[in-house]
Amino acid sequence: MLMRTDPFRELDRLTQQMFGAANPGTWSKPATMPMDAYRDGDEFVVCFDLPGADPDAIELDIERNVLTVKAERRPYPGKDVQMQVSERPLGVFSRQLFLGEALDTDRIAAGYEAGVLTLRIPVAEKAKPRRIEISGSETDRKEIQA
């Protein structure tokens, strides 16, 4: 159901882990988010890990068959906050998926619960398996009826 994957995604993830994406001046690309994708009957389900993201800070856009998920984990509000330990990355997280023609992108449903964004994308009617009736020639039909 996914058309393509980004061949450099794993390399980007490893580079971020080694050099750190939390330092704003060292990484120009938005951080990525882990995802699972699977087919469940007549739906294609995609789950993104976005712990600590406010639902209002999540954006979903689709243009042609490219789905873009963008989320922001913001710093803690308050003037008197003094961080003691800061290991959780902050900032913008982004991910793009190239969806196949077999999916109905007009009917995507999205839900966010327990830090997981879940998208349910129905399989398009034209892509669902269907039974095709086989008919014989006119002479075969006459012989059967006789």
UniProtKB/TrEMBL annotation:
UniProt cross-references to Pfam families, sorted A to Z: HSP20
Transmembrane residue ranges: none
Lineage: Bacteria, Bacillati, Actinomycetota, Actinomycetes, Pseudonocardiales
Domain of life of the native organism: Bacteria
The family this protein is said to belong to: Belongs to the small heat shock protein (HSP20) family.
InterPro entries documented for this protein: A-crystallin/Hsp20_dom, HSP20-like_chaperone, Small_HSP
Span of domain SHSP: 26-137
Protein name, entry field: SHSP domain-containing protein
